[in-house]
Write the structure tokens for this entry.
Amino acid sequence: QVQLVESGGGLVQAGGSLRLSCAASGSTRSITAMGWYRQAPGKQREAVAVITNSGTTTYADSVKGRFTASRDLAKNTVYLQMNSLKPEDTAVYFCNALGRAIPIPFYWGQGTQVTVSS
């Protein structure tokens, strides 16, 4: 099992920045990728950024050029630097980790609220 704990959410004005962090614990050697998802009220959860253990990073089109995801493998931590925030970025942001087993286990953090005011 993998446990994920997020931090860093909050309220920011449009155009501002926030940095989210997510620390993994437990069976961290089984993690093959980590990333961030978000869910806005009334909408489905969507992927924001995913980083594999090799460092390959994939971003949602809506955040490309504004958000940067990074990982510290030694600290089992993933970060999301969010710049030029827009009101439509308002959502609960969830940290995610993929395991190595079959079927692939998905692990989730508790979520952290990001609110961008206009």
Remarks:
- The chain has no helices and eleven strands.
- The mean pLDDT is 95.
- The radius of gyration is 14 Å.
